[in-house]
Amino acid sequence: MTDKTPRARRIVLASGNAGKLKEFQSLLGDAGFEVIPQSEFNVSDAEETGLSFVENAILKARHACRATGLPALADDSGLEVDALLGKPGIYSSRFAGEDGPDKDSANNQKLLNSLQGLAQAERSARFQCVLVYMRHAEDPTPLICQGSWEGQILHKISGEGGFGYDPLFYVPEHDCSAAELSKSEKNAISHRGKAMQQLLSQLERLL
Q1: Closest CA to 112 of 56, 154, 162, 171
Q2: 8 A C-beta contact, residue 80 and residue 70
């Protein structure tokens, strides 16, 4: 943590996901923001009781604000698969059950099993991301930004980069999986990258 960073530019990330932390530190760091994981304050994860990405992101951001007294940024994102009527959706991170060291592998395997027998043309999907920035726990007008990323689900895992469902998410314009993109390529076109660009422009106006 850097004491020289202005308070308004120090943001607590309401997530314990190492992959998300790296992406946010990369995207926001260049704009002069310091992103601090809530784990540095010994803040536990908020209970995600919402029924939408927006509700869950607000719950997480408010929880982090209240616990740290700093502005907080929360991300709620997931994968929507058309053949599964939008599932796993808000339950993407726990599609195959509770958290564990092999959570990503278990989620990916369940997704493959769920789509078994479907042709590539029937495997359309998209990543959704909702970002919520709250100045304080009682902020009545949090910043809410949303981005989506269209693609398809592959028949098998491809690539070793990224995290979550990236090895199964086919990106047509690059003819590869999200896990095979470079960090800069992914940030430029991903659901999180799009939402972050909206957030950056709004933060600059706000601050």
Answers
A1: 154
A2: no
Question: 134 with 62: CB under 8 angstroms?
Answer: yes
Instruction: Report how many helices (DSSP H) and strands (DSSP E) the chain contains, helices first.
Output: 5, 7
The encoded tokens of residue 162 equal 């990224």
Count Cβ atoms within 10 A of the Cβ of residue 200 and give its class: 0-12 exposed, 13-18 middle, 19 or more buried. middle
Strand partners, 176: 171
What string of H, E and C letters represents the secondary structure of 132-177?
EEECCCCCCCCEEEEEEEEEEECCCCCCCCCCCCHHHEEECCCCEE
Write down the pLDDT at residue 1.
46
The single-letter code of the amino acid at 152 is Q
The three-class DSSP label of residue 146 is: strand
Pair of tokens at residue 114: 């769920």
> What is the rounded CA–CA span in Å between residue 118 and residue 155?
9
Q: What are the catalytic residues?
A: 76
Q: What is the pTM of this model?
A: 0.88
User: What are the 10-residue block averages of pLDDT along the chain, 207 residues in total?
Assistant: 66 86 84 91 92 96 96 96 97 87 92 98 98 96 97 97 95 97 92 92 83
